[in-house]
Design a protein that fits this description.
This protein is an alpha/beta fold. It has helices spanning 71-85, 111-122, 141-154, 171-177, 185-195, 217-223, 240-244, 262-268, 281-285, 293-298, and strands at 2-9, 13-21, 24-31, 41-45, 95-99, 128-134, 161-165, 203-208, 229-234, 273-275, 312-313.
Length: 314
């Protein structure tokens, strides 16, 4: 793996571009959550594919899909980040989160499961908590079946986070936002009911919520038990894809996260609702969800208030 560029800073996040195979690049991120020190929480976000075949309308990493990474190639990203901070591979961090969410749909790459099995052997990391974020593609049933076995064997008792990115309760709009064949709500709920066991973290239903995308609490209640599922609302981050597709974020600012009453309505029917806004500086770095540095570097017209940090070529 050859590091070709980096941007950001240690206060919030650093995003790295690496050439893993000749002419094929990945990106990965490390971040902290001010004011928490790195010893309390450290997050790594790694790629599982070269590009992504899904093409979600708010994501700059879609397109230019060139295949899956191997388990070794995924681990090389984690190794590089870990060994810079913890050369003895003793990651003594209270919450050490590894998200398979920078580039690629992880459930379409079985090598992700190999990585999940390797992580507890590779590092001394009492706070390790892997996180799979997925749009639940049709045809990924074998992945989910094996994921259940891996979670039961290695990550029970609240040490694993599973997130389904669904973005709206309107089926036709969901198909527009995530333009591949995917599980419907009944299929997601059926798997979630089996996956969630006593002591596990609740399964997250994630909404990168755009204006005009409905979130109907009653539709969710028909499928998703609030005892097993929670709701996470995030902004639509300022990406080239979101701008091109006319997607404006429902959450306009941290000071006014619920101007339309969506969060209140979800809480009223019994859901635990998280609002995950994060540090706005991450938008400037290009390390937030949906952002992709190589898309920015190729852009003819930069986005205002996004990707403004200088990318240091190495």
């Amino acid at each position: 793996m050859r590091i070709v560029a980096r941007t950001g800073g240690d206060r919030v996040a650093v995003a790295t571009i690496a050439e893993i195979r000749e002419g094929r690049f990945v990106e990965f991120v490390e971040s902290v959550q001010p004011p928490l020190p790195r010893s309390r929480k450290w997050v790594l976000i790694v790629s599982t594919m070269f590009g992504c075949p899904v093409g979600c309308l708010m994501c700059d990493a879609g397109g230019e899909y060139q295949g899956n990474l191997s388990a070794g190639e995924i681990l090389s990203q984690i190794d590089w980040l870990v060994q810079r901070r913890f050369p003895d591979r003793r990651v003594e961090v209270d919450k050490f989160k590894i998200q398979f969410a920078r580039m690629g749909e992880p459930t379409l790459n079985m090598a992700v499961l190999e990585v999940l099995q390797e992580l507890p052997l590779r590092y001394y990391a009492p706070g390790l908590m892997p996180s799979i974020s997925t749009v639940a593609p049709s045809g990924s049933e074998a992945f989910f079946t094996r994921l259940l076995a891996v979670k039961r064997a290695l990550y029970s008792g609240g040490r694993f986070q599973l997130q389904f990115s669904i973005h709206t309760t309107d089926g036709s709009l969901r198909d527009r936002l995530v333009p591949i064949r995917k599980w419907d709500f009944a299929e997601i709920a059926a798997f979630g009911d089996v996956f969630h066991e006593p002591g596990d973290r609740k399964i997250t239903l994630n909404f990168a919520l755009a204006d005009g995308m409905p979130v109907d609490p009653q539709t969710l209640l028909r499928h998703f038990d609030p005892e097993r599922f929670l709701i996470k609302i995030t902004p639509v981050n300022p990406t080239y894809a979101a701008l091109k597709n006319g997607l404006a974020s429902y959450i306009a600012s941290a000071e006014e996260p619920d101007r339309g009453g969506v969060l209140r309505a979800l809480r009223d029917v019994g859901y635990e609702v998280l609002v995950s806004i994060g540090e706005m500086e991450e938008n400037l770095i290009g390390s937030n969800c949906g952002q992709y540095l190589r898309r920015h570097l190729k852009a003819e017209q930069p986005i205002r208030d996004s990707y403004t940090y200088q990318v240091q070529r190495l």
